[in-house]
Amino acid sequence: xxxxxxxxxxxxxxxxxxxxxxxxxxxxxxxxxxxxxxxxxxxxxxxxxxxxxxxxxxxxxxxxxxxxxxxxxxxxxxxxxxxxxxxxxxxxxxxxxxxxxxxxxxxxxxxxxxxxxxxxxxxxxxxxxxxxxxxxxxxxxxxxxxxxxxxxxxxxxxxxxxxxxxxxxxxxxxxxxxxxxxxxxxxxxxxxxxxxxxxxxxxxxxxxxxxxxxxxxxxxxxxxxxxxxxxxxxxxxxxxxxxxxxxxxxxxxxxxxxxxxxxxxxxxxxxxxxxxxxxxxxxxxxxxxxxxxxxxxxxxxxxxxxxxxxxxxxxxxxxxxxxxxxxxxxxxxxxxxxxxxxxxxxxxxxxxxxxxxxxxxxxxxxxxxxxxxxxxxxxxxxxxxxxxxxxxxxxxxxxxxxxxxxxx
Length: 408
Ligand code: KG4
Ligand code: ZN
Prior knowledge:
Layout: H1 2-9, E1 26-31, E2 36-43, E3 48-55, H2 57-63, H3 68-90, E4 99-105, H4 109-126, E5 129-134, H5 135-141, H6 143-146, E6 154-159, E7 164-171, E8 174-180, H7 186-196, H8 210-219, H9 244-260, H10 272-300, E9 310-314, H11 321-334, E10 337-339, H12 343-346, H13 350-363, E11 384-385, H14 387-393
Parallel strand pairs: 1-4, 4-5, 6-9, 8-11, 9-10
Antiparallel strand pairs: 1-2, 2-3, 6-7, 7-8
The chain binds 5'-O-[(R)-(carboxyoxy)(hydroxy)phosphoryl]adenosine and zinc ion.
5'-O-[(R)-(carboxyoxy)(hydroxy)phosphoryl]adenosine (KG4) binds next to helix 7 and helix 8.
């Protein structure tokens, strides 16, 4: 078993575009994988010299979800201004920038294509090196920018609008995938259910993302147990996630309540805050179960030395303080350190891409002089897939009691 892991890890990584990068650097990062046009300039010490972010959130909120051609148009309209504002803020000349790092995978193809085109254009016209970036790799590494005590290997939970992953980060470009969502991502489930509950019809929630709206609504609930939920995948002894079942349970509760209370088209069900509290609690319990099993698997195979035992949580849904509180309970109990980047670096941004560029520059991984053939990829798994090994380990866990998280 351990042999399989070692064999998988030690596969050689061949980089055709090798380029020497044996010095400090200043990197410009571009992010356009979904609905945020982001740019930042970061140096080798992790100083953010300039940053700019244009969020399309309000446009997509009005449309009831992201419509890819609209997202693409907005990226196209904003990219130049976002990059120029970043450079102006950094107050440096473009000649001081060593390379341009750009998200090329995974993400919405129409959105990714704008960033890639602009990143390549900058490199061609200014004679710079290009560093293609994996969006999830940068979510995983962001925490190292502010905290250089986070050394490889460490465990990462990535929860966002498009992704849900549990990985061991072994190096900048080396990951072991322990679990992933078999259907929706947490942020996606929060967004869809917030819409179905019509939370944005209340002024206080009108401009929030689905996840923010559910978290706020849940905090106003008085009884998280009013609506019954079952936690998904209890019988599956792996680290995969499933949010579709929880979503269906929420949906059924709403339909029942709408009938029971004769709720009008634009109105909300009377106990919507309790429903949000139960929904958020069930998602949180599910995430904690999968993390607990992942930690057990890591222990079983000695994948992280005791002095480095750290769980990093990142991605947009990691902004959720309730989820963070529950993960803290799990980590305290098991003796792990929990690390979360500042919330504005958990959601999509240019800083994490520029920092990923710095991490790759330091190790000369994928720093390219010839980048014509680089293309976007809609889907791109992160790391070596260990899900079969995790499943085969068949680890039973005695679930850590989370306590009453709404009260403490
Ligand atoms: O990482 P991100 O900016 O974009 C993706 O790569 O998906 O994540 C956006 C997601 C949205 O689905 C949003 O609802 C969710 O992050 N989110 C939250 C919170 N804030 C943002 N989910 C739960 N609780 C929050 N406080
Ligand atoms: Zn993201």
